From TrEMBL:
Pfam family, one: Hen1_L
Keyword Zinc listed: no
Domain Hen1 N-terminal: 1-240
Domain Methyltransferase type: 289-381
Domain of life: Bacteria
A GO MF term: RNA binding
Keywords of this entry: Magnesium, Metal-binding, Methyltransferase, RNA-binding, RNA-mediated gene silencing, S-adenosyl-L-methionine, Transferase
EC numbers on record: 2.1.1.386
Record-stated family: Belongs to the methyltransferase superfamily. HEN1 family.
GO biological process, one term: RNA methylation
Name of the protein: Small RNA 2'-O-methyltransferase
Organism placement in taxonomy: Bacteria, Pseudomonadati, Planctomycetota, Planctomycetia, Pirellulales
Amino acid sequence: MLLTITTDHQPATDLGYLLHKHPERLQSFDLAFGKAHVFYPEADVQRCSACLLLDVDPVGMVRGKNRNQGDLLGHYVNDRSYVASSLLSVAIAQVLGTAMAGRCNQRPELASTPLPFEARLDVLPVRGGERFLHEIFEPLGYEVEAERYLLDPEFPQWGESVYYSVTIRATVTLSDLLTHLYVLIPVFDNEKHYFVGEDELEKLLAKGGAWLAAHPQKEQISRRYLRNRHSLYRQALSRLLEMESPESDEESPRPAAQEETLERTLSLNDQRHGAVLAALKASGARSVLDLGCGEGKLLRDLLNEKQFEQIVGMDVSFRSLEFAQKRLKLDRLPERQAQRLKLLHGSLIYRDRRLEGFDAAALVEVIEHLDSPRLAALERVVFEFAQPKTVVVTTPNQEYNVMWETLPAGQFRHNDHRFEWTQAEFQAWAQQVAGQHGYAVRFLPVGPEDETVGSPTQMGMFTRRL
């Protein structure tokens, strides 16, 4: 298996300092399951590439195993010698551990500087398909390319395999790149060559840290990394949610929550929830849906208003719902109060009859997390099937992004955003949806308005025509 890391940062040969491996030498390292070799196929000031080649000894891997355990033939006849797996993660930690830790004695400033990197994995088993690759890497800011292989080129009718050559590109620190690969390679493979115990849980949290806590696929990543061991997986999610909790934010802000960091100086989140709450109250609604309710921030505000007699929060993340339940202290509420509020686990891209018959629905910063097919499905679920009398939708105003100096040009406020619309784009979408499904829509700004670029958040209030 082969990992190639390339940069065109000038001078590109700085990669040698970052990796602590000299570009002019082939270096080999003994590992428990074979050898690792580091070499540079190209190294000049314009472009530099470093390769980590793993030469696995399949006999050495099973030497000493209990012959009465499992399928002995399976220990020898497998793909472990040829694909990127947990073996490569171990090699990254042992051979490139100093770089992964973010240390560079001779060029210390480089270790903390985001640089343009390209990493190629030959060959990666992806048990989940190319879509899974994009779902995992893109929220971390990577551009992804994947080439899938046939099971056998001589017999194309046999179909495609689970094996891909994968290339990812981003401007990141080398430490982040290596850490992401270290954690995620076994996740794609959904397999490990060693026993998974409590130490793996601690390793996941130590290496994943805040970026994993903010990742939209943290549940899937944690489950696969911990080999579907239910007790460990539940512990991991519980501790990751603690990293996300607002209470801990007051003491130590989450580095990965870039959208909240940008907006904090404006208290934009509070203004957004206040605007949505005011719109829902003005609609006269008695029953309200909070679709994509997350950790329950809006639900808490709704619960404090006596006007709302029936409140339902729905989210695709079961763990977020558990956290919302804790935030709202549902087990401590008086019975009459608790009966007003219900949490539902479900997806907004499938018709759900539990959502029908409500006066109003809120979609607060939800639509920008959906790609085009899922957004089209959500439109039908909400506006065609559920048909609340009022729908309030908020989404970022892409034009306002220039007001934040810390946000690079062309970058979204959050890694998981699939789009950020201009005011014209949002209004065109909203008017098309309203016209198609029998609604009228009006638009309101949220947050401080600029004469040129408008407000940071844009809100559409849909009202069903009688």
